[in-house]
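Protein: Uracil phosphoribosyltransferase
Species: Corticicoccus populi
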Amino acid sequence: MSNVHVMDHPLIQHKMSYIRDKKTSTKDFRELVDEVGMLMVYEVTRNLQLEDVEVETPITTMTAKRLSGKKICLVPILRAGLGMQEGVHKLIPAARVGHIGLYRDPETLQAVEYYAKFPADIEDRDILVIDPMLATGASAVEAITAIKKRGANKIRFVCLIAAPEGVEALQKAHSDVDIYIAALDEKLDEKSYIIPGLGDAGDRLFGTR
Ligand SMILES: O=P(O)(O)OC[C@H]1O[C@H](OP(=O)(O)OP(=O)(O)O)[C@H](O)[C@@H]1O
Ligand SMILES: O=c1cc[nH]c(=O)[nH]1
Ligand SMILES: [Mg+2]
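Structure follows.
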């Protein structure tokens, strides 16, 4: 079974309190999501492989460490994933980026795919799938299934807020995918929104409601 990491660092909890607050403006919301994305990168990338490189400092030569192998590929789930991916990308600027467009049908709650574009060599890369919200888990499960179909198998899922129902569904469908969460909330409401949550992440990021 996959690991679930709840990243309750004080800085993350502090920023999450503003992200959840309905009085927070669109501009501040976007900036805060970006910042929490950046803070989460430390833990998410903790186990990346390093290799030795010879470096000449102004004083002497030494053996230093650099990330080895092919670069990371970020996969934001459109739309809301874009807002969080920006912060992650600032700390891993050489990462490739694939995109998958999914929306949650409000009646069936199924994830409907409307766009997908991935790097050609995605199967050789460490993949970080990014979406602020893990509610029923349908969108994350669908996105990861689509990525695996292209041959990738080293996949982590990164989100701001998860419901227990979403964590369970994702672990059941993709038991090899570790899950990184800033906050694990209580449950889903009757429309499958996360309680207490933050509302609709896409609408709050892009000011569409
Ligand atoms: O776990 P689930 O029940 O699938 O719900 C989570 C999904 O819902 C939201 O996207 P939404 O469908 O609102 O699309 P948007 O990003 O375009 O707003 C969110 O960003 C996730 O992708
Ligand atoms: O609470 C939720 C659930 C799904 N999508 C969101 O943006 N928020
Ligand atoms: Mg939305």
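Remarks: The chain has a mean pLDDT of 96.
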